[in-house]
């Protein structure tokens, strides 16, 4: 009593953990302990290591123990939005892992375990919102990778071994200090989008649609006829800048 040991999080008991097991979309078992104020990995969940999915996101975890290897069946691991500075080497033993989300943490390139390249069945990897200044070329061994998130880091280049992965469909590398930002933005979203405009004759529109279109046309004509006034930049003196880029880019790292 009375001894200060820093921030004290919620204690997760085996009973709480068992009550947090849900049925996953594909019929597997999902242990959902997200957003529960956890500061240390709850060792009691090692007794539930037969689950298929584990969600520890949006907590205050600083470390994942090497005992994570006990989750041999794990296909889906979500650790986003914690305070992780490193990952255990044993994460490479999770050979069934399909999805790994470790974005919005404090990971550096130095503390990314080389064993990540052993996750041969990995399809989705999210490393966004960390402190990475480079990407290990060894990640090019993840031949099944479909999507990789590298946004909001300190990257100046992406190795060809990663960009040219045979099954890669989506590479999000937005908001990194690339020397040629325009060129790198092309890697962020390789899908070219076009907008199609369909034209119809007035006689093909119903009465209500025709009336609506005419009203909109009249509004546009009125706006076009208004003389432009002196330009003035808007001022927002009370607008506060968010203290984390995560607030601006939540949709990129939220759960699917």
TrEMBL record:
Pfam families: LRR_14. Residues 221-256 are annotated as: Disordered. Residues 73-178 form the Disease resistance R13L4/SHOC-2-like LRR domain. PROSITE patterns: LRR. SUPFAM superfamilies: L domain-like. GO terms for cellular component: cytoplasm. Signal peptide: none annotated. InterPro entries: Leu-rich_rpt, Leu-rich_rpt_typical-subtyp, LRR_dom_sf, LRR_domain-containing, LRR_R13L4/SHOC2-like. The keyword Repeat applies. Keywords: Leucine-rich repeat, Repeat. PANTHER family: LEUCINE-RICH REPEAT-CONTAINING PROTEIN 18-LIKE, PTHR48051. This is LRC18 protein. The gene is Lrrc18.
